[in-house]
C-alpha cells in the first residue's frame, strides 16, 4: 500500500509518500513541497492541483490522506486553506485514489503520541519513524505525518477480525 499524505496550504502544500510493507513496516518514498507564487486565486489553485496531480503520476500512490481544515486565525485564511485543500482532493479524486481525512489532533497523536505536539516534535518523530538522515522541512514533515497516521489506521483496520454480517451487538442464546 502506497500512501500520499498532503498538508494543504495556500502558499505551500507539503506532500509525503510512504510505502506500507507486508510486515506493516512504513518506508519512506519521497517528500517535498508544492510552492505557490503570488497571483490570482485561480492560478494558485491550479498550481496546487497540477502539483499534486504530477506527484500522483510520479509516485503512483493508491491512497491519499489529507489534513482537515481547522479554524485558522481568521476566516479568510481558513477559506483559502479550504480551497487549496479542495484542489488537492480533486487531484486525487480525478486519479481514483481512496481519500481519507484526518484532523491535526489525530495526525499528531498517531505520530508523536500526543495531539498538541509542536512542529519540531512532529519533524523529529517523522525523522525517527522513517529512519531519515535529516529532519524534513515542516510542511513535508506534516504531510509525512499525515501519511503515517493513515498507515497506522489502515494497518490496524486490516488486522482487526472481520465481524460476521448481520445484527450488531451481543446475541442472547437460550
Give a structural overview.
It is a single chain. The protein has helices at 41-59, 75-94, 104-111, 119-130, 138-159, and strands spanning 2-7, 12-20, 26-35, 63-67, 98-102. With 174 residues, the chain is α/β, with parallel strands linked by helices. It has one domain (2-155): Nucleotidyltransferase, domain 5 (2-Layer Sandwich), CATH 3.30.420.10. The protein is globular. 47% of the residues lie in helices and 20% in strands. A five-stranded mixed beta sheet has the order 3-2-1-4-5. It contains five helices and five strands. Mean pLDDT is 87; it is low at 159-163 and 165-174. The longest helix has 22 residues, at 138-159. Helix 1 packs parallel to helix 2 (75-94) and helix 3 packs across helix 5 (138-159).
The share of residues in helices is: 40-55%
Strand count, sense and barrel status of the largest sheet are: 5 strands, mixed
CATH topology: the name is Nucleotidyltransferase, domain 5
Which class in CATH terms? Alpha Beta
First-residue to last-residue Cα separation: 45 Å
SSE sequence, one letter per element? EEEHEHEHHH
Q: How many strand elements?
A: 5
Poorly predicted ranges: 159-163, 165-174
Provide a count of the helices: 5
Any idea how many domains?
A: 1
Strand fraction: 15-25%
Oligomer designation: single chain
Amino acid at each position: 500500500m502506497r500512501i500520499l499524505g498532503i498538508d494543504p496550504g495556500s502558499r505551500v502544500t507539503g506532500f509525503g509518500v510512504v510505502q506500507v510493507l507486508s510486515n506493516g513496516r512504513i518506508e519512506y518514498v519521497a517528500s517535498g513541497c508544492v510552492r505557490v507564487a503570488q497571483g490570482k486565486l485561480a492560478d494558485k489553485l491550479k498550481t496546487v492541483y497540477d502539483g499534486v496531480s504530477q506527484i500522483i503520476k510520479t509516485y503512483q500512490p493508491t491512497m491519499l490522506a489529507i489534513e482537515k481544515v481547522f479554524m485558522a486565525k481568521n476566516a479568510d485564511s481558513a477559506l483559502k486553506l479550504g480551497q487549496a485543500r479542495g484542489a488537492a482532493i480533486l487531484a486525487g479524486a480525478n486519479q481514483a485514489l481512496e481519500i481519507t481525512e484526518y484532523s491535526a489532533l489525530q495526525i499528531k497523536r498517531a505520530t508523536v503520541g500526543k495531539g498538541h505536539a509542536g512542529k519540531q516534535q512532529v519533524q523529529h518523530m517523522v525523522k525517527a519513524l522513517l529512519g531519515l538522515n535529516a529532519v524534513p522541512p515542516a510542511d513535508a514533515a506534516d504531510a509525512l505525518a499525515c501519511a503515517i497516521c493513515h498507515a497506522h489506521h489502515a494497518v490496524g483496520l486490516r488486522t482487526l477480525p472481520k465481524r460476521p454480517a448481520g445484527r450488531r451487538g451481543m446475541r442472547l442464546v437460550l
